[in-house]
């Protein structure tokens, strides 16, 4: 998604005069949408390093938000 984001910005900046904040908002929306579409790929067994059962994806996202916005350490060893 990041490389697609940069490529999209380059194309838009060359063709149109656009507000940077508006473009960033649109690109961020599409990054979230694309990431949500890609979530099931993390459950594939051949991805041994990041293999994540589908049932744990929601918990993983929730813990990420708690860590990012609330500063709570959700990693338990």
Automatic annotation (TrEMBL):
<feature type="transmembrane region" description="Helical">
    <location>
        <begin position="21"/>
        <end position="42"/>
    </location>
</feature>
<keyword id="KW-0812">Transmembrane</keyword>
<dbReference type="Pfam" id="PF08627">
    <property type="entry name" value="CRT-like"/>
</dbReference>
<dbReference type="GO" id="GO:0016020">
    <property type="term" value="C:membrane"/>
</dbReference>
<protein>
    <submittedName>
        <fullName>Putative transporter protein CG10</fullName>
    </submittedName>
</protein>
<keyword id="KW-0472">Membrane</keyword>
<keyword id="KW-0813">Transport</keyword>
<dbReference type="InterPro" id="IPR013936">
    <property type="entry name" value="CRT-like"/>
</dbReference>
<comment type="similarity">
    <text>Belongs to the CRT-like transporter family.</text>
</comment>
<keyword id="KW-1133">Transmembrane helix</keyword>
């Amino acid at each position: 998604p990041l490389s697609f984001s940069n490529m999209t910005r380059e194309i838009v900046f060359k063709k149109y005069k656009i507000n940077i904040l508006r473009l960033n908002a649109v690109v961020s929306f599409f990054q979230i949408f694309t990431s949500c579409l890609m979530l099931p790929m993390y459950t594939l067994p051949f991805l041994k390093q990041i293999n994540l059962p589908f049932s744990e994806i929601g918990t993983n996202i929730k813990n990420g938000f708690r860590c990012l916005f609330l500063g709570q350490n959700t990693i338990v060893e």
